[in-house]
Amino acid sequence: MSFNDIFTRTFREGFANTDLGFMEIILVFALAVCIGGYIFLVYRFVTKQTFYSKHFNISLAVLPVIVAAIILAVQSSIVISLGMVGALSIVRFRTAIKDPIDLMFLFWSISAGIICGAGLGEIAVIASLIITAMVVALDNMQIVRAPMLLVLNVDNLDTEDEILKIVSAHCKYSKVKSRNVTKDRLHMIIELRTDKGTALLKELSAKDGIFSVTLMEHDGEAVC
């Protein structure tokens, strides 16, 4: 027997049908459904997006079932496996992932389907619990809010020093990020951290020479 015959026989035996019974297949899909529903709940609990995408979350719940079905089909025959590779290779996903955590959930959902389809349900359950614990623990780590931006339009150029004194009295941290002078008007942007934003705005608004005051907060986060 030549090497090619040995290799071909071994390759075919590796793809031999495992003869899964009806109940085994039902159990695989039931586990995939349970894990998909679990991922759905975890994503809804953890996500902090302003515009929550329910359709994306539904796709996360359904993906384990779809992937498990593909894995079961691939295990049955080498011909089907090669056909699946050819069919899936022409698929192009053009939906942009806006939040990195969405990508993590997407890989989690696909991996759960692969593991369930391979008949390793215990690994899928344990991995899901570990991932959940890590996500919740890291998400609840103590963080400090990013600095806010104070935007001022000033009519009197000589009031800058007084403005900086008022800001320093109300803020733990402040730094002038930009100054823009046009004729007799000064436009300033100050980066700051404060818990007294309302009092700061009231005092600055009452100051003569200040045309407008705006305090903005962005969504960025900084580690303590």
Unreliable stretches covering 5 or more consecutive residues? none
Continuous helix count:
8
Query: Order of strands in the sheet with the most strands?
Result: 3-4-2-5
Roughly what fraction of the amino acids lie in strands? 15-25%
Kindly state the number of beta strands.
6
If you had to describe this structure to a student in words, what would you say it looks like?
The structure is a single chain. The protein contains 8 helices and 6 strands, in the order H-H-H-H-H-H-E-E-H-E-E-H-E-E. The protein is elongated. Helix 2 runs parallel beside helix 6, helix 3 packs antiparallel against helix 4 (about 80-90) and helix 3 packs parallel to helix 5. The strands form 2 sheets. The chain has a 4-stranded antiparallel β-sheet with strand order 3-4-2-5, with helices on one face. It has helices at about 5-15, 20-45, 55-75, 80-90, 100-115, 120-140, 160-170, 195-205; strands at about 145, 150-155, 175-180, 185-195, 210-215, 220-224. The longest helix has 25 residues, at about 20-45. Helices cover about 55% and strands about 15% of the residues. It has about 220 residues and is an alpha+beta fold.
What layout of secondary structure does this protein have?
Layout: H1 3-14, H2 22-46, H3 54-76, H4 78-88, H5 100-117, H6 121-139, E1 143-145, E2 148-154, H7 160-170, E3 173-182, E4 185-193, H8 197-205, E5 210-216, E6 221-223
Antiparallel strand pairs: 1-6, 2-4, 2-5, 3-4
Helix pairs in contact: 2-3, 2-5, 2-6, 3-4, 3-5, 5-6, 7-8
